[in-house]
Amino acid sequence: MNRSQALNRLVPPRARDRLGDALLARVAGPSGAENRARIHGTPGPRWFAPGEPIRQVHGDASMFVGGLSALLLQSLHPRAMAAVAAHSGYRGDPWGRLQRTSTFLAFTTYGTAQDAQRAVDAVRAVHGRIRGRTPDGQPYRADDPHLLEWVHIAEVDSFLRAYQRYGAGHLDADGCDAYVAAAARVGQALGVVRPPRTADELAERIEAFRPELRGTEEARAAARFILLRPPLPWPARPPYALLAAAAVALLPPWARTPLGLPLLPRTERWCVGPAGTAVTGAIRWALRQTPPAPGPRQPDPRERRVRASGA
Protein backbone atom coordinates (compact mmCIF):
# COMPACT_ATOMS: atom_id res chain seq x y z
CA MET A 1 0.00 0.00 0.00
CA ASN A 2 1.46 3.38 -1.00
CA ARG A 3 1.23 6.62 0.99
CA SER A 4 -1.81 7.95 -0.89
CA GLN A 5 -3.74 4.72 -0.40
CA ALA A 6 -2.93 4.73 3.32
CA LEU A 7 -4.11 8.33 3.67
CA ASN A 8 -7.30 7.54 1.76
CA ARG A 9 -8.07 4.78 4.26
CA LEU A 10 -7.30 6.93 7.30
CA VAL A 11 -8.87 10.25 6.29
CA PRO A 12 -12.53 10.67 5.25
CA PRO A 13 -13.05 12.21 1.77
CA ARG A 14 -14.72 15.31 3.21
CA ALA A 15 -11.75 15.97 5.48
CA ARG A 16 -9.43 15.62 2.51
CA ASP A 17 -11.55 18.07 0.53
CA ARG A 18 -11.52 20.59 3.37
CA LEU A 19 -7.76 20.31 3.70
CA GLY A 20 -7.25 20.73 -0.03
CA ASP A 21 -9.58 23.73 -0.15
CA ALA A 22 -7.75 25.35 2.78
CA LEU A 23 -4.39 24.87 1.09
CA LEU A 24 -5.65 26.33 -2.18
CA ALA A 25 -7.21 29.29 -0.38
CA ARG A 26 -3.88 30.06 1.31
CA VAL A 27 -1.88 29.78 -1.88
CA ALA A 28 -4.30 31.14 -4.49
CA GLY A 29 -6.19 33.71 -2.41
CA PRO A 30 -9.85 34.75 -2.52
CA SER A 31 -9.85 34.94 -6.33
CA GLY A 32 -8.27 31.52 -6.69
CA ALA A 33 -11.33 29.69 -8.05
CA GLU A 34 -12.09 32.48 -10.52
CA ASN A 35 -8.47 32.59 -11.70
CA ARG A 36 -8.30 28.81 -12.10
CA ALA A 37 -11.43 28.83 -14.23
CA ARG A 38 -9.97 31.56 -16.43
CA ILE A 39 -6.52 29.96 -16.68
CA HIS A 40 -7.71 26.50 -17.62
CA GLY A 41 -11.03 27.30 -19.29
CA THR A 42 -10.14 30.14 -21.65
CA PRO A 43 -9.37 28.91 -25.17
CA GLY A 44 -6.34 30.21 -27.03
CA PRO A 45 -2.63 29.63 -27.58
CA ARG A 46 -0.39 29.18 -24.56
CA TRP A 47 3.27 29.96 -24.01
CA PHE A 48 3.83 26.35 -23.01
CA ALA A 49 2.16 23.26 -24.40
CA PRO A 50 0.84 20.38 -22.28
CA GLY A 51 3.61 17.97 -21.40
CA GLU A 52 6.39 20.56 -21.28
CA PRO A 53 8.65 20.24 -18.22
CA ILE A 54 7.75 23.71 -16.93
CA ARG A 55 4.14 22.59 -16.53
CA GLN A 56 5.29 19.43 -14.80
CA VAL A 57 7.51 21.31 -12.32
CA HIS A 58 5.24 24.25 -11.55
CA GLY A 59 2.22 22.02 -11.01
CA ASP A 60 3.86 19.80 -8.43
CA ALA A 61 3.61 19.98 -4.63
CA SER A 62 7.40 20.30 -4.47
CA MET A 63 6.88 24.00 -5.31
CA PHE A 64 5.96 24.52 -1.66
CA VAL A 65 9.55 23.61 -0.76
CA GLY A 66 11.11 25.29 -3.81
CA GLY A 67 9.36 28.58 -3.14
CA LEU A 68 10.67 28.80 0.42
CA SER A 69 14.17 27.86 -0.69
CA ALA A 70 14.07 30.48 -3.45
CA LEU A 71 13.18 33.22 -0.96
CA LEU A 72 16.13 32.28 1.22
CA LEU A 73 18.55 32.17 -1.70
CA GLN A 74 17.31 35.45 -3.20
CA SER A 75 17.79 37.23 0.12
CA LEU A 76 21.57 36.87 -0.19
CA HIS A 77 21.81 39.70 -2.71
CA PRO A 78 21.90 42.90 -0.61
CA ARG A 79 20.19 45.15 -3.15
CA ALA A 80 17.49 42.59 -3.97
CA MET A 81 16.88 42.02 -0.25
CA ALA A 82 16.68 45.75 0.46
CA ALA A 83 14.01 46.12 -2.22
CA VAL A 84 12.03 43.20 -0.78
CA ALA A 85 12.30 44.51 2.78
CA ALA A 86 11.20 48.01 1.84
CA HIS A 87 8.51 47.34 -0.74
CA SER A 88 7.19 43.76 -0.81
CA GLY A 89 5.22 43.72 2.44
CA TYR A 90 6.41 40.20 3.18
CA ARG A 91 6.06 40.77 6.92
CA GLY A 92 2.77 42.65 6.96
CA ASP A 93 1.10 40.61 4.21
CA PRO A 94 3.10 37.41 3.57
CA TRP A 95 0.10 35.49 2.31
CA GLY A 96 -0.77 38.27 -0.12
CA ARG A 97 2.74 38.14 -1.53
CA LEU A 98 2.56 34.35 -1.85
CA GLN A 99 -0.80 34.56 -3.58
CA ARG A 100 0.42 37.17 -6.07
CA THR A 101 3.47 35.05 -6.88
CA SER A 102 1.48 31.83 -7.29
CA THR A 103 -1.08 33.61 -9.48
CA PHE A 104 1.69 35.00 -11.69
CA LEU A 105 3.24 31.54 -12.07
CA ALA A 106 -0.14 30.00 -12.87
CA PHE A 107 -1.01 32.54 -15.57
CA THR A 108 2.40 32.45 -17.24
CA THR A 109 2.72 28.66 -17.09
CA TYR A 110 -0.82 27.56 -17.94
CA GLY A 111 -2.82 30.60 -19.06
CA THR A 112 -3.39 31.93 -22.55
CA ALA A 113 -0.55 33.86 -24.16
CA GLN A 114 -2.62 37.04 -23.80
CA ASP A 115 -3.20 36.54 -20.08
CA ALA A 116 0.44 35.56 -19.55
CA GLN A 117 1.56 38.80 -21.16
CA ARG A 118 -0.91 40.78 -19.03
CA ALA A 119 0.56 39.19 -15.90
CA VAL A 120 4.08 40.11 -17.01
CA ASP A 121 3.04 43.68 -17.86
CA ALA A 122 1.49 44.11 -14.40
CA VAL A 123 4.68 42.96 -12.66
CA ARG A 124 6.85 45.20 -14.85
CA ALA A 125 4.65 48.18 -14.02
CA VAL A 126 5.16 47.53 -10.28
CA HIS A 127 8.91 47.06 -10.73
CA GLY A 128 9.14 50.36 -12.60
CA ARG A 129 7.96 52.25 -9.52
CA ILE A 130 10.33 50.67 -6.98
CA ARG A 131 13.48 52.65 -6.18
CA GLY A 132 15.57 53.06 -3.06
CA ARG A 133 18.88 52.61 -1.29
CA THR A 134 20.30 49.82 0.82
CA PRO A 135 21.18 50.55 4.46
CA ASP A 136 24.77 51.23 3.38
CA GLY A 137 23.68 53.63 0.65
CA GLN A 138 23.75 51.53 -2.54
CA PRO A 139 21.01 52.53 -4.97
CA TYR A 140 18.67 49.89 -6.34
CA ARG A 141 15.85 49.65 -8.87
CA ALA A 142 13.51 46.70 -9.05
CA ASP A 143 13.65 46.84 -12.85
CA ASP A 144 17.45 46.65 -12.92
CA PRO A 145 18.16 43.78 -15.38
CA HIS A 146 21.03 42.56 -13.20
CA LEU A 147 18.84 42.20 -10.11
CA LEU A 148 16.05 40.68 -12.21
CA GLU A 149 18.53 38.07 -13.41
CA TRP A 150 19.48 37.12 -9.85
CA VAL A 151 15.85 36.78 -8.77
CA HIS A 152 15.12 34.74 -11.89
CA ILE A 153 18.02 32.29 -11.63
CA ALA A 154 17.53 31.81 -7.88
CA GLU A 155 13.90 30.87 -8.49
CA VAL A 156 14.59 28.59 -11.43
CA ASP A 157 17.39 26.78 -9.61
CA SER A 158 15.31 26.38 -6.44
CA PHE A 159 12.19 25.16 -8.24
CA LEU A 160 14.21 22.65 -10.24
CA ARG A 161 16.15 21.41 -7.20
CA ALA A 162 12.88 20.94 -5.31
CA TYR A 163 11.26 19.00 -8.13
CA GLN A 164 14.30 16.76 -8.59
CA ARG A 165 14.38 16.00 -4.86
CA TYR A 166 10.70 16.00 -3.83
CA GLY A 167 8.71 15.91 -7.07
CA ALA A 168 6.39 13.12 -8.11
CA GLY A 169 8.49 12.56 -11.22
CA HIS A 170 12.04 13.30 -12.23
CA LEU A 171 13.61 15.13 -15.17
CA ASP A 172 16.57 13.74 -17.07
CA ALA A 173 19.33 16.04 -18.33
CA ASP A 174 17.35 17.02 -21.44
CA GLY A 175 14.28 17.69 -19.31
CA CYS A 176 16.26 19.95 -16.98
CA ASP A 177 17.55 21.93 -19.96
CA ALA A 178 14.03 22.19 -21.37
CA TYR A 179 12.74 23.51 -18.05
CA VAL A 180 15.46 26.17 -17.82
CA ALA A 181 14.85 27.19 -21.45
CA ALA A 182 11.10 27.52 -20.88
CA ALA A 183 11.62 29.56 -17.72
CA ALA A 184 13.96 31.80 -19.74
CA ARG A 185 10.99 32.89 -21.84
CA VAL A 186 9.26 34.24 -18.74
CA GLY A 187 12.48 35.80 -17.42
CA GLN A 188 13.14 37.57 -20.71
CA ALA A 189 9.58 38.91 -20.79
CA LEU A 190 10.15 40.36 -17.29
CA GLY A 191 13.34 42.14 -18.38
CA VAL A 192 16.17 39.65 -17.88
CA VAL A 193 18.52 40.44 -20.75
CA ARG A 194 20.14 37.05 -21.32
CA PRO A 195 18.57 34.37 -19.14
CA PRO A 196 20.28 30.96 -19.03
CA ARG A 197 18.81 28.29 -21.26
CA THR A 198 20.47 25.11 -19.99
CA ALA A 199 21.14 23.64 -16.56
CA ASP A 200 24.88 24.15 -17.08
CA GLU A 201 24.38 27.83 -17.92
CA LEU A 202 22.14 28.21 -14.86
CA ALA A 203 24.86 26.80 -12.58
CA GLU A 204 27.46 29.08 -14.18
CA ARG A 205 25.32 32.20 -13.66
CA ILE A 206 24.72 31.42 -10.01
CA GLU A 207 28.43 30.88 -9.50
CA ALA A 208 29.15 34.23 -11.20
CA PHE A 209 26.86 36.03 -8.73
CA ARG A 210 28.54 34.60 -5.62
CA PRO A 211 31.01 37.52 -5.11
CA GLU A 212 28.00 39.86 -4.79
CA LEU A 213 26.15 37.76 -2.22
CA ARG A 214 26.32 38.15 1.54
CA GLY A 215 24.19 37.68 4.61
CA THR A 216 22.93 41.11 5.63
CA GLU A 217 20.96 41.68 8.81
CA GLU A 218 17.86 42.11 6.63
CA ALA A 219 18.51 38.73 5.01
CA ARG A 220 18.99 36.98 8.36
CA ALA A 221 15.84 38.63 9.72
CA ALA A 222 13.90 37.45 6.67
CA ALA A 223 15.23 33.92 7.17
CA ARG A 224 14.13 33.93 10.82
CA PHE A 225 10.68 35.15 9.84
CA ILE A 226 10.26 32.60 7.04
CA LEU A 227 11.59 29.64 8.99
CA LEU A 228 10.68 30.32 12.62
CA ARG A 229 7.81 32.83 12.75
CA PRO A 230 5.35 31.97 10.00
CA PRO A 231 1.91 33.56 10.38
CA LEU A 232 0.18 30.19 10.78
CA PRO A 233 -2.19 28.64 13.33
CA TRP A 234 -0.44 26.25 15.69
CA PRO A 235 -1.83 23.03 14.14
CA ALA A 236 -0.26 23.98 10.80
CA ARG A 237 3.18 24.71 12.20
CA PRO A 238 4.59 21.16 12.49
CA PRO A 239 4.06 20.33 8.77
CA TYR A 240 5.31 23.81 7.87
CA ALA A 241 8.45 23.16 9.93
CA LEU A 242 9.10 20.07 7.80
CA LEU A 243 8.70 22.13 4.63
CA ALA A 244 11.04 24.78 6.03
CA ALA A 245 13.68 22.21 6.96
CA ALA A 246 13.44 20.70 3.48
CA ALA A 247 13.84 24.18 1.97
CA VAL A 248 17.02 24.81 3.96
CA ALA A 249 18.38 21.40 2.95
CA LEU A 250 17.95 22.36 -0.73
CA LEU A 251 20.23 25.37 -0.40
CA PRO A 252 23.81 25.04 -1.65
CA PRO A 253 26.18 24.63 1.31
CA TRP A 254 27.82 28.01 0.63
CA ALA A 255 24.44 29.75 1.08
CA ARG A 256 23.86 28.48 4.63
CA THR A 257 26.52 30.24 6.71
CA PRO A 258 25.68 33.82 5.59
CA LEU A 259 22.11 33.25 6.73
CA GLY A 260 23.11 31.59 10.01
CA LEU A 261 21.68 28.23 8.92
CA PRO A 262 23.28 24.93 9.94
CA LEU A 263 24.78 22.32 7.65
CA LEU A 264 23.83 18.90 9.05
CA PRO A 265 24.35 16.39 6.25
CA ARG A 266 23.50 13.24 8.21
CA THR A 267 20.36 14.75 9.73
CA GLU A 268 19.30 16.04 6.35
CA ARG A 269 19.90 12.71 4.67
CA TRP A 270 18.21 10.48 7.21
CA CYS A 271 15.55 12.78 8.72
CA VAL A 272 14.88 15.93 6.71
CA GLY A 273 14.84 14.23 3.31
CA PRO A 274 12.27 11.55 4.20
CA ALA A 275 10.18 14.08 6.14
CA GLY A 276 10.17 16.46 3.18
CA THR A 277 9.10 13.63 0.90
CA ALA A 278 6.29 12.71 3.29
CA VAL A 279 4.89 16.23 3.68
CA THR A 280 5.03 17.02 -0.06
CA GLY A 281 3.34 13.69 -0.69
CA ALA A 282 0.60 14.63 1.77
CA ILE A 283 0.11 18.00 0.06
CA ARG A 284 -0.06 16.26 -3.33
CA TRP A 285 -2.68 13.90 -1.90
CA ALA A 286 -4.73 16.71 -0.36
CA LEU A 287 -4.73 18.67 -3.61
CA ARG A 288 -5.71 15.52 -5.53
CA GLN A 289 -2.80 15.89 -7.89
CA THR A 290 -2.47 12.92 -10.23
CA PRO A 291 1.05 13.09 -11.62
CA PRO A 292 2.26 10.68 -14.28
CA ALA A 293 4.03 7.60 -13.04
CA PRO A 294 7.73 8.48 -12.75
CA GLY A 295 10.23 6.71 -14.97
CA PRO A 296 13.61 5.40 -13.83
CA ARG A 297 15.24 7.93 -11.54
CA GLN A 298 18.36 9.44 -13.09
CA PRO A 299 20.93 11.64 -11.33
CA ASP A 300 20.40 15.37 -11.62
CA PRO A 301 23.30 16.61 -13.80
CA ARG A 302 24.06 19.29 -11.21
CA GLU A 303 24.30 16.62 -8.50
CA ARG A 304 26.94 14.88 -10.59
CA ARG A 305 28.92 18.11 -10.82
CA VAL A 306 28.70 18.69 -7.06
CA ARG A 307 29.97 15.19 -6.32
CA ALA A 308 32.78 15.58 -8.83
CA SER A 309 33.90 18.91 -7.38
CA GLY A 310 33.56 17.81 -3.77
CA ALA A 311 31.64 21.02 -2.93
From TrEMBL:
InterPro entries: MPAB/Lcp_cat_dom. Pfam families: MPAB_Lcp_cat. Residues 288-311 are annotated as: Disordered. This is DUF2236 domain-containing protein. Residues 55-279 form the ER-bound oxygenase mpaB/mpaB'/Rubber oxygenase catalytic domain. It comes from Streptomyces antimicrobicus.
